[in-house]
Design a protein that fits this description.
Elements (H helix, E strand, L loop, with lengths): L5 H4 L5 E3 L3 E7 L8 E7 L4 E4 L5 E15 L4 E6 L2 E4 L6 E16 L20
Antiparallel strand pairs: 1-2, 2-3, 3-8, 4-8, 5-6, 5-7, 5-8
Bound molecules: (2~{S})-4-acetamido-2-azanyl-butanoic acid.
């Protein structure tokens, strides 16, 4: 049994600032759950290009307001509290926050820890 408290992540190596967002990494690959879980704040007024070609991600918004635009079809999905989006096609997208958004993000395969997006909005594949 494992219990993780957000207050213990804040200010530690498991709090990763990506510029437009700050990701508090609650569970990682080393925890051997087969997925990772982040509590992430997307900063108000930002637009982030993301394309997780090596991961599937589900994102559950618990606070705030913004939208996701999928780039294959330019559809725009409003995102507010109590809304989940799942990038089930490794969808390339733009994430825009009009207010700070608090998101619970689950990745399969799990993140190993310090990932930040590369210039194409991708997290690298974990070679281990
Ligand atoms: C919602 C989203 O994809 N934000 C970018 C950061 C990423 N999810 C993370 O590492 O928490």
């Amino acid at each position: 049994m494992k219990v993780v408290k957000l207050e213990d992540i804040l200010g530690s190596d498991n709090e990763v600032d990506g510029g437009n967002w700050v990701s508090r990494r609650l569970l990682l690959k080393k925890d051997n759950m087969g997925y990772s879980v982040n509590d992430t704040i997307i900063r108000a007024g930002t637009e982030t290009h993301i394309w997780y070609q090596n991961h599937l991600e589900s994102v559950y918004c618990i606070e705030g307001e913004g939208e996701v635009e999928t780039l294959s079809d330019n559809k725009v999905y409003p995102i507010t509290a109590d809304t989940l989006y799942a990038l089930d096609q490794n969808d390339e997208h733009l994430l825009r926050a009009t207010r700070d958004m608090r998101m619970i993000c689950v990745f399969n395969p799990p993140l190993s820890g310090r990932e930040v997006h590369d210039e194409n909005g991708v997290y690298p594949v974990d070679e281990d």
